[in-house]
Amino acid sequence: MQRVRTIWNASLLGRVLAAVSLWFGRQWDNSRVIQAFLSPMAGAERSRSSVFFRLWEGIRRFFCRVYEALHLEKVFSGSIFLQTWLWCALPVTLAPLLIYRPSIMVLLLSLVGFFSLALQLQRSRDRELVYSPINRFVVLYAAVYLAGTLLSSDLRSSLQPGLLSVAFILFSLVLYNAVATRRQLDTLVVLLVLAAVCVSFYGILQYLFGWGYQSAAWVDSDMFSSIRFRVASTLDNPNMLGQYLVLMIPLAGAKLLSSRDAGRAVFYLCCCGVLCLCMVLTFSRGAWLGLLFAGVLFLLLLDARLIFLVPVALVVLYFALPESIIGRFSSIGDTSDASTSYRVYIWMGVLAMLKDGYWLCGIGPGDTAFNQIYPAYSYNGIVAPHAHNLFLQILCDAGICALLVFFIILFQYFRTLGVALRDRSDKTTRLYQIAFASGVFGFLVQAMTDYSFYNYRVMFLFWAYLALGCLAARRNQLPEGGLLQ
Description:
The structure is a single chain. By secondary structure, the protein is an all-alpha fold. The chain has a domain at 139-477. The chain is built from 20 helices and no strands. The protein has helices at 2-10, 12-30, 32-38, 51-69, 73-76, 84-94, 102-123, 135-150, 155-178, 182-209, 238-257, 262-282, 285-302, 309-320, 323-330, 338-358, 367-373, 390-422, 427-447, 456-473.
């Protein structure tokens, strides 16, 4: 491999491409917009004089006194419930694997994580919540979403999905505070990849043996007669499975590239193969497009010169992949496809609905609330459970404030990782940061074609993913430590 690299660097083509890459790199580094983006925010430190901090400290002191007055230390000293990392790792790892009432099971496991962190904060007055610039906006988004739920056009139907969403959003703060060592973060990344491999392997078996439910709405049988089966695995829908894999494949790639020996490299190469094969079998064009954008960003952040491999890879894939896959991918944007025209008509109806005043506060989360208002604006009588676009659906759920705060969260997330990538880090840390940045970027690309949070477990994993990405940004600052404290 080293010999090939030496020959390439000495070649005329290699020198030309390196010069072009360096020129673009200098333009990037000298850009005022980029430098402003990568500059730390003024006043980003937590203000201890703020009303919210004083309120939090007052509530915490009260519960600390209750904990001491009831002598709860005798009950919980040495308890397994004090292992916050364990109780947060369980729902994050098991979320895509659960089958029986999975959303409720994930919620119950998450609540144990909340309880464990609360115990830690009550028993130790010196322990503080770990600060991150993104946290305040996560809390604000949860508050706005809760307000949207309470102001729903149908409170009864919106209450359960709204409260479930708020709990999953706030869990990201618990997870961020639960991971205290580098080993805990690394182990959690490994568990995420292994869980994704199990989900993907089951999906491949589904395709081979024809297991599971298939909906006629999942594919235009007239346009894609060769596609008989789309894999959904444990996530009930091929598009939701694809959305999940867009997050997981970059992590598997990071583990592959950071492997320190041949055995691990082969293992993670097989993991990447299983995940990518399952992704192909979803036949989800939005997920394929999201993964393509995630891959391009991964290569750009890893080494800008690698971007020149993308056209070569696309040509190779064009000749190597079956005609059914090529035809499916090339149909992106073709309005003659029933699935594409279906989405376009939904977007037109939703935009008309939002324009009529519902953009301000939304109509509340949940299918029932959506279908109380949307049918009056639907085009061609199109029936839909949601807006088939994450950003439009957030507008529908909780209004323009929720969407603006969501954009701020994404801005802060990419800024945090961008600043971290600019600093010198070890290879593993840098690869984690690249993976978490590219995974969210690809997820958001697919989110423009589907409502990514329709599956609550995918929503839960997205918010957990944001927390882990912020942890990866400061991985060098974490002590090596152990798994259980």
